[in-house]
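Box 3.1 A note on notation
Throughout this textbook, protein chains are presented in two layers. The first layer is the amino acid sequence; the second is a C-alpha coordinate string describing backbone geometry. Keep the layers aligned when reading.
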Amino acid sequence: MSGSAGAADSHEIVHRRTPADLRRLAAFGAVLYLSACLYFALQAFGAETSYAAVALVYLTAGTVLAALTGIGIASSTALAGVFRYRLATCWLPTLPGFVAFRWLTARDAI
Protein backbone atom coordinates (compact mmCIF):
# COMPACT_ATOMS: atom_id res chain seq x y z
CA MET A 1 0.00 0.00 0.00
CA SER A 2 1.48 3.33 -1.00
CA GLY A 3 1.39 6.45 1.16
CA SER A 4 -1.18 8.18 -1.06
CA ALA A 5 -3.55 5.19 -0.91
CA GLY A 6 -3.46 5.28 2.90
CA ALA A 7 -4.19 9.01 2.88
CA ALA A 8 -7.14 8.49 0.52
CA ASP A 9 -8.56 5.77 2.81
CA SER A 10 -8.30 7.95 5.90
CA HIS A 11 -9.85 10.90 4.01
CA GLU A 12 -12.82 8.69 3.08
CA ILE A 13 -13.27 7.53 6.68
CA VAL A 14 -13.17 11.07 8.07
CA HIS A 15 -15.55 12.54 5.48
CA ARG A 16 -18.07 9.71 5.29
CA ARG A 17 -21.20 10.78 7.14
CA THR A 18 -24.37 8.85 7.76
CA PRO A 19 -27.69 10.40 8.77
CA ALA A 20 -27.23 8.91 12.24
CA ASP A 21 -23.83 10.62 12.56
CA LEU A 22 -25.37 13.95 11.60
CA ARG A 23 -28.21 13.49 14.11
CA ARG A 24 -25.73 12.76 16.90
CA LEU A 25 -23.66 15.80 15.92
CA ALA A 26 -26.77 18.02 15.88
CA ALA A 27 -27.90 16.71 19.27
CA PHE A 28 -24.45 17.34 20.75
CA GLY A 29 -24.40 20.85 19.30
CA ALA A 30 -27.86 21.54 20.72
CA VAL A 31 -26.76 20.44 24.20
CA LEU A 32 -23.69 22.69 24.01
CA TYR A 33 -25.74 25.64 22.77
CA LEU A 34 -28.60 25.30 25.25
CA SER A 35 -26.34 24.72 28.23
CA ALA A 36 -24.37 27.83 27.20
CA CYS A 37 -27.65 29.80 27.08
CA LEU A 38 -28.45 28.66 30.61
CA TYR A 39 -24.92 29.48 31.78
CA PHE A 40 -25.07 33.04 30.43
CA ALA A 41 -28.60 33.58 31.76
CA LEU A 42 -27.30 32.66 35.21
CA GLN A 43 -24.23 34.87 34.78
CA ALA A 44 -26.52 37.80 34.00
CA PHE A 45 -27.93 37.50 37.51
CA GLY A 46 -24.54 37.19 39.17
CA ALA A 47 -24.27 33.42 39.60
CA GLU A 48 -20.70 32.30 40.16
CA THR A 49 -20.25 28.80 38.81
CA SER A 50 -18.43 27.05 35.99
CA TYR A 51 -19.83 26.23 32.58
CA ALA A 52 -19.03 22.56 33.19
CA ALA A 53 -21.19 22.51 36.32
CA VAL A 54 -24.10 24.18 34.51
CA ALA A 55 -23.75 21.82 31.52
CA LEU A 56 -23.89 18.85 33.87
CA VAL A 57 -26.99 20.30 35.52
CA TYR A 58 -28.54 20.91 32.09
CA LEU A 59 -28.26 17.22 31.30
CA THR A 60 -30.56 16.56 34.26
CA ALA A 61 -33.25 18.67 32.54
CA GLY A 62 -36.17 17.83 34.80
CA THR A 63 -34.47 19.11 37.93
CA VAL A 64 -32.61 22.18 36.70
CA LEU A 65 -33.72 24.55 39.46
CA ALA A 66 -33.08 22.08 42.28
CA ALA A 67 -29.73 21.05 40.82
CA LEU A 68 -28.58 24.67 40.43
CA THR A 69 -29.32 25.38 44.06
CA GLY A 70 -27.56 22.12 44.85
CA ILE A 71 -24.32 23.38 43.29
CA GLY A 72 -24.42 26.53 45.41
CA ILE A 73 -26.40 29.09 43.42
CA ALA A 74 -28.90 31.09 45.48
CA SER A 75 -32.47 29.99 44.79
CA SER A 76 -33.58 33.48 43.70
CA THR A 77 -30.66 33.73 41.26
CA ALA A 78 -31.30 30.22 39.97
CA LEU A 79 -35.00 30.95 39.47
CA ALA A 80 -34.29 34.21 37.62
CA GLY A 81 -31.63 32.54 35.47
CA VAL A 82 -33.84 29.58 34.59
CA PHE A 83 -36.73 31.93 33.77
CA ARG A 84 -34.54 34.00 31.45
CA TYR A 85 -33.12 30.84 29.89
CA ARG A 86 -36.60 29.42 29.23
CA LEU A 87 -37.74 32.75 27.83
CA ALA A 88 -34.77 32.92 25.43
CA THR A 89 -34.79 29.29 24.31
CA CYS A 90 -38.47 28.36 24.45
CA TRP A 91 -40.81 31.34 24.27
CA LEU A 92 -39.00 33.96 22.15
CA PRO A 93 -38.37 31.56 19.23
CA THR A 94 -42.13 31.13 18.89
CA LEU A 95 -42.46 34.71 17.59
CA PRO A 96 -40.40 34.26 14.40
CA GLY A 97 -41.91 30.78 14.08
CA PHE A 98 -45.41 32.27 14.09
CA VAL A 99 -44.43 34.89 11.51
CA ALA A 100 -42.80 32.26 9.29
CA PHE A 101 -45.84 29.99 9.60
CA ARG A 102 -48.22 32.81 8.59
CA TRP A 103 -45.96 33.82 5.68
CA LEU A 104 -45.63 30.25 4.39
CA THR A 105 -49.34 29.56 4.84
CA ALA A 106 -50.28 32.71 2.93
CA ARG A 107 -48.15 31.50 0.00
CA ASP A 108 -49.55 27.96 0.12
CA ALA A 109 -46.05 26.65 0.83
CA ILE A 110 -47.36 24.48 3.67
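Residues 19-44 form the longest helix (26 residues). Residues 3-106 form one domain.
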